[in-house]
């Protein structure tokens, strides 16, 4: 029974699952926390990975391993493989002005033209989340650091590189070989300097770096970028001190994946499937044969982990909106759900616009949350709990509308993430989205997707051309649609007010 490991190095923690490569059955798991913040030294990810691996009983017996991770974060390395400064994470908005500057520059001074050119070139209109905007910020705000940059990696690229045994000479067995960095199409497609649909270097492949855009953003393009691997192409072998030490030939390393693409792979998503994820960020994602080029910026056209496209509408404010409600109301997770369900749909006109930490979709990095319709009758804990829940979901419903506007098919809606287990969130989702909602069994979908990729790499090494293993994601329940138009109507009426 060969074993594979999937790693999710997320914003909040590192999670590892060890699964049977053939059946996907869970064998063991482990996790460890990351520190809070929007700028984190990557050493914290390495320490958390090692701690999670220990909790999972070690990785000596795994035959393949892959890493899924938070997208967009900037890991800047010098020629000695050292991290130059704390990694700037996807949810850090300091580069919002850099994004605007780059849009205008590509559009020769015209924002609308520039936005469409970015979408045509990379699938996304720039926002502060994307790596290229962070490189522009680094160039302008920290020129001494920028001058030292020899390689640019994403969080999962860097962790995979360390697992393979690379890093600074005094911290790793294989030293600082920057050419050993690798990534996959899904994570590369979120940098702002990679076109997932450009002709590839090999016949039949797609995807290429746009070094002209890198040069526009960073002022130079003489930096090492990770090799972009095909979905089942190994990036090397884990160092035996980290994983695979008891396996003949060691543990193959999968190309890894961005977190949303990893979750889609873990869920077995196909074209027509929509996943609404309620984690640190809120994500509406759809698998399709080709990406969109939405110049409005509502939809990001990324690649998935299988060769398809993955369209995303992303909000900065999801489960943390419920955390804020719990803090305001002094309620537990279960109590918050009970309170929300005790108020009527629409909360009698009380509406929260949930831009509590700025927003990415719509692109309003400096926005704040606003509460509308507060009256004596709606100044209750129940109404507030309902308004926070409805506001969070209305922001994501706008994302679903944007996908429909791009003619993305909507055949099945999956509600996932920690907040998806709330009875109130489930019920309100059927009312806000007006669609049947499928709720998969709780799981570590990103880590599971990484493990499935590892199993795919292992199978392809033995039988070239093998497809991804058929692992199933069980759906615990499907809820009937219960459309309540008043909720969306009230939200739309106040969403764009100052």
Distance between the termini: 59 Å
Give the helix tally. 15
What name does the CATH topology of the domain at 3-267 carry?
Answer: Nucleotidyltransferase, domain 5
Q: Report the major sheet.
A: 7 strands, mixed
Average predicted confidence as pLDDT = 94
Shape: globular
Tally of strands: 24
CATH architecture of the domain at 3-267: 2-Layer Sandwich
**Low-confidence sequence ranges:** none
Which structural category fits the helices and strands? Answer: alpha+beta
Report strand %: 15-25%
Superfamily at the CATH H level of the domain at 3-267?
ATPase, nucleotide binding domain
Return the CATH class of the domain at 3-267.
Alpha Beta
Helix content: 25-40%
- Rg is 22 Å
Report on this model:
Strand 10 (194-199) and strand 11 form a beta hairpin. This protein has 15 helices and 24 strands. Strands 1, 2, 3, 5, 13, 14 and 15 form a seven-stranded mixed beta sheet that branches. The chain is α+β, with helices and mostly antiparallel strands and 498 residues long. The chain is globular. It has a domain at 3-267: Nucleotidyltransferase, domain 5 (2-Layer Sandwich). The protein has helices spanning 43-55, 96-106, 111-122, 131-141, 143-148, 155-163, 185-188, 211-218, 259-267, 319-329, 333-341, 381-405, 423-433, 445-462, 485-494, and strands spanning 3-9, 13-20, 26-33, 39-40, 62-69, 75-77, 87-88, 151-153, 182-184, 194-199, 206-209, 227-229, 236-237, 252-253, 257-258, 273-278, 282-288, 300-303, 309-315, 351-353, 370-372, 412-416, 437-440, 475-479.
């Amino acid at each position: 029974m060969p074993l594979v490991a999937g790693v999710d190095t997320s914003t909040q923690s590192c999670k590892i699952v060890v699964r049977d490569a053939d059946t996907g059955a869970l064998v063991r798991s482990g996790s460890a926390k990351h520190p809070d913040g929007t700028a984190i030294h990557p050493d914290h990810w390495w320490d958390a990975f090692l701690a999670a691996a220990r909790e999972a009983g070690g990785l000596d017996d795994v035959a393949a391993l892959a890493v899924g991770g938070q997208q967009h974060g900037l890991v800047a390395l010098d020629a000695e493989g050292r991290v130059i400064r704390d990694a700037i994470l996807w949810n850090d908005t300091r580069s919002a002005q850099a994004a605007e500057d780059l849009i205008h520059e590509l559009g020769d001074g015209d924002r609308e033209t520039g936005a469409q050119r970015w979408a045509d070139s990379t699938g996304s209109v720039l926002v502060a989340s994307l790596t290229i905007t962070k490189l522009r910020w680094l160039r302008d705000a920290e020129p001494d650091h920028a001058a030292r940059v020899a390689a640019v990696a994403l969080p999962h690229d860097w962790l995979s590189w360390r697992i393979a045994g690379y890093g600074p000479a005094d911290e790793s067995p294989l030293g600082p070989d920057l050419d050993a960095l690798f990534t996959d199409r899904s994570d590369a497609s979120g940098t702002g300097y990679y076109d997932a649909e450009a002709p590839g270097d090999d016949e039949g492949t797609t995807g290429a770096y746009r070094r002209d855009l890198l040069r526009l953003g960073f002022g130079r393009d003489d930096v090492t970028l990770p090799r972009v691997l095909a979905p089942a192409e190994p990036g090397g072998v884990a160092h035996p001190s980290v994983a695979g030490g008891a396996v003949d030939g060691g543990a193959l390393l999968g190309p890894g994946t961005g977190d949303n693409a990893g979750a889609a792979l873990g869920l077995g998503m196909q074209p027509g499937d929509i996943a609404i994820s309620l984690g640190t960020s809120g994500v509406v994602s759809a698998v399709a044969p080709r990406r969109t080029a939405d110049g409005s910026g509502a939809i990001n056209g990324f690649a998935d982990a299988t060769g398809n496209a993955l369209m995303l509408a992303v909000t900065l404010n999801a489960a943390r909106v419920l955390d804020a409600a719990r803090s305001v109301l002094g309620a537990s997770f279960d109590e918050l759900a009970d309170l929300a369900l005790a108020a009527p749909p629409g909360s009698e006109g009380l509406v929260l616009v949930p831009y509590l930490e700025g927003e990415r979709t719509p692109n309003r990095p400096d926005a704040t949350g606003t509460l509308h319709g507060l009256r004596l009758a709606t100044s209750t804990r129940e109404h507030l709990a309902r308004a926070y829940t409805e506001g969070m979901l209305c922001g994501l419903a706008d994302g679903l509308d944007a996908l429909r506007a791009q003619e993305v098919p909507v055949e099945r809606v999956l509600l996932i993430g920690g907040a998806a287990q709330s009875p109130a969130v489930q019920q309100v989702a059927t009312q806000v989205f007006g669609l049947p909602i499928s709720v998969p069994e709780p799981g570590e979908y990103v880590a599971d997707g990484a493990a499935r990729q590892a199993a795919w790499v292992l199978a392809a090494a033995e039988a070239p051309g093998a497809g991804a293993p058929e692992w199933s994601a069980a759906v615990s329940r499907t809820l009937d649609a219960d459309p309540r138009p008043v909720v969306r109507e009230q939200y739309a009426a106040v969403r764009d007010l100052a």
